[in-house]
């Protein structure tokens, strides 16, 4: 277990909150234990079983007939195929969420080596190929797009004010344009991410 004593834990009301939390903590994570992995399997299985029950032709037939769908019917080959189809949808969800996490991490200071290490230890070049837009150069003239929690934002630099600002539209179609008051790119992207999270649709909220 990582020694936690030296890791800063500022309150959101602190003046340096965003600058502090935008500084990468090393190591960023502790390796999941077998119990953690088992819990993840159980939760994924619960989610895909629920989807399989909604898309399975046999399950729909039972529902139309007003009969309960006994869990033992999950052993039917066609229901298992529906489960496999649901697992594929879970994989697509993981890919989408991974792209969002990589983009937020990369555009807040993580490099491709760190992204690759988080994604099972793939090489830096492989991480760059997987998420080619996750890490960008933050020159003063760039406007940098971000997609997260079903919404989108663009972070800009105001050369006159020498400050960063953003425009954002959440998944609920609510929009916001900040003032050029963010002293760093990391602070601006954190503000945009916070807005997108606050305006995510209930079923698009990233896991805590």
Beta fraction? 5-15%
Approximate helicity band: 40-55%
Low-confidence stretches: none
Cα distance, first to last residue?
20 Å
The major pleated sheet works out as: 4 strands, antiparallel
Key phrases:
alpha+beta; 208 residues; four-stranded antiparallel beta sheet; single chain; 7 helices; 4 strands
How would you characterize this protein structure?
The chain is α+β, with helices and mostly antiparallel strands and 208 residues long. The protein has helices spanning 17-21, 34-55, 57-64, 77-106, 112-118, 124-130, 185-198; strands spanning 144-148, 151-158, 163-169, 175-177. A four-stranded antiparallel β-sheet has the order 1-2-3-4, covered by helices on one side. Helix 2 (34-55) packs across helix 4 (77-106) and helix 5 packs across helix 6. The mean pLDDT is 86.
Brief overview, please?
This protein has helices at residues 17-21, 34-55, 57-64, 77-106, 112-118, 124-130, 185-198; strands spanning 144-148, 151-158, 163-169, 175-177. With 208 residues, it is an alpha+beta fold. Strands 1-2-3-4 form a 4-stranded antiparallel beta sheet, covered by helices on one side.
Helices and strands, with pairings:
Elements: H1 17-21, H2 34-55, H3 57-64, H4 77-106, H5 112-118, H6 124-130, E1 144-148, E2 151-158, E3 163-169, E4 175-177, H7 185-198
